[in-house]
Amino acid sequence: MSAAHTNPDVLGDSSSWMSFIWIGFVTSMTLMLIGIYFLPVDWWIRGYLYMGTLFLTASTLTLSKSLRDRHEYERLVNRVKNARTEQVLSQFDRT
């Protein structure tokens, strides 16, 4: 087995999963925009719904990126703390 399959820090998402995510995102956004276009309402209501959809999508993407970045930062901090602890313990074991 290669190192990428045994090391959880290297393991990433499969190409099938990424395709599924992108297809789901594009499909849902397209259907939402088409649905708004065919609503039997005035143009200004459609504009409001379009704007709300785009802002909601942008804020969702920003939130998910921020949560991922925070998680990666916390993992890095924990790895550094664990390395320091291991260093102190190894020095303690030598004495």
What report would you give on this structure?
The chain has about 100 residues and is mainly α. The protein has one domain (about 5-95). It is built from three helices and no strands. The protein has helices at about 5, 15-35, 45-95. Helix 2 packs antiparallel against helix 3 (about 45-95). The longest helix is centred in the last third of the chain and has 52 residues, at about 45-95. The chain is elongated. The chain starts with a helix and ends with a helix. The model has no long low-confidence stretch (mean pLDDT about 85).
Average pLDDT for all residues: 86
What structural class do you assign from the helix and strand content?
mainly alpha
- The dominant shape is elongated
* Cα gyration radius (Å): 23 Å
Q: Name the helicity range.
A: over 70%
With helices defined by DSSP (H or I, 4 residues minimum), what is the helix count? Answer: 3
- Poorly predicted runs are none
Task: Give a quick account of the main beta sheet: strands, pairing sense, barrel closure.
Answer: none
What is the straight-line distance between the termini?
38 Å
Please tag this protein with its features:
single chain, YiaAB two helix domain-containing protein, mainly alpha, transmembrane, 3 helices, YiaA-like, YiaAB, 95 residues, membrane
Summarize the structure.
The protein has 95 residues and is mainly α.
